[in-house]
Structure formats: C-alpha cells, structure tokens
C-alpha cells in the first residue's frame, strides 16, 4: 500500500526514511552510506568527529585530562619520590593509565564510537605523559625512542576503548 510523502501529501510513495521511517518521495530523499534519509534526519546527522554533543564532549575532555593527570602524577611519584620502580613496571602502569583514560571517557557518556572522543582520549594520554615527566625530572620532553613507543602504544590502547 502506498503512502504519501510527508512533505508532499499528494505524492504517493513506497519509499521511507531508514532512520525515522517517515514515507518520502524520490525527490525529497537523500542516498547515504547507511541508506535512504529524509531531509529532517539529514539535518540531524552531524559530521564525523562531532557526533557527540558539545556538553558531553567537554565532560569527556575533563575526564580524560583528569584521569590522565592523576595517573601521570601517580606514575611520576612512584618513579621518583616513593619507591624505585623498574622502567618496564612504570611503562606497564602508564598503559594501565591509558586504558583507564579510554574507559572513563567512553563509559562516562556511554559513547563507544566517536572519532572526536578518540582524539580526547589521546589527549588524556599525552597529559599523563607530560605530568609524569614534570614530576619525575622537571624535564618536560624526555623523548627517548623507547618512551615514544610506549606513548604511541598507550594512545592506541586508550583510543581502542572508544573505537
Ligand atoms: Zn528521517
Ligand atoms: Zn516529497
């Protein structure tokens, strides 16, 4: 049975929007990667990377930076002030911090797939690294090759929680 386009009441159609289900004529519809969409749904679709509302985005950034800073500080103190920690244990702890950064970012706002949030989680890891180095040695950028590898792995761990 044919329904009429929700924008053109006189035009009969068998097509409908794949998102909201409204009947729509061939003139109004837009073909997307995920199927037919009506103009209303096209307007509501945000570009990739901004698929999270600004408020949630800010919340996620605060979580990533907060967890990253706390974890980085803990790592720095363990390395320097409290106990002597072998490098591989510090690296393992750093990866754990990265995991927590990714998890808290994703869990807090319940979003699992977001390019923007992956960037936020990556930022959290960089914050953890910078804070660790500030406390450990007062030298901001200790860029040894092995350390860089650990940071890259850590960023991959954090962003994998959101992919
Ligand atoms: Zn629609
Ligand atoms: Zn129409």
Q: How would you characterize this protein structure?
A:
With 163 residues, this protein is mainly alpha-helical. It has two domains: 3-44, no CATH class; 54-160, no CATH class. Helix content is 60%, strand content 6%. It contains five helices and four strands; from the N terminus they run ββββααααα. It has helices spanning 39-44, 54-82, 87-109, 115-137, 145-160, and strands at residues 3-4, 12-13, 30-32, 35-37. The strands form two sheets. It has a two-stranded antiparallel ribbon with strand order 1-2. Strand 1 and strand 2 (12-13) form a beta hairpin. It is rod-shaped and about 75 Å long. The relative contact order is 0.13. One zinc ion binds at residues 5, 7-8, 11, 24-25, 27-28. One zinc ion (ZN) is lined by residues 17, 19-20, 22, 37-38, 40-41.
List the keywords.
163 residues; mainly alpha; 2 domains; two-stranded antiparallel ribbon; 5 helices; 60% helix; 6% strand; binds zinc ion
Residues in β-strands, percent = 5-15%
Radius of gyration: 23 Å
Low-pLDDT segments:
none
Biggest sheet details:
2 strands, antiparallel
- How would the global form be characterised? rod-shaped
Mean pLDDT across residues: 81
